[in-house]
Amino acid sequence: MILTVKIDDSLPVGKRIIQELRSYPKVVKFEYPVVTDGVAPEGYMTGEEFARRGKEKLKQYYKENGLLE
Questions:
Q1: C-alpha to C-alpha distance for 5 and 14, rounded to whole angstroms
Q2: Residues whose CB falls within 8 Å of the CB of residue 1, separated by 6 or more in sequence, listed in order
């Protein structure tokens, strides 16, 4: 049986779980999500989407602080 598990590595307990799992390389395989055919996995965004959102937020910040008309 193969299980797919999501672990939140932003928390200390998540980091400990990952560290423990890495000590079993014969039975544990880590897969990192990749963008295929322009579709990002759930919870992720493409580089283009990241750049677009960053530009929008920067533009909004400039407008709010009177740096851009």
A1: 12
A2: none
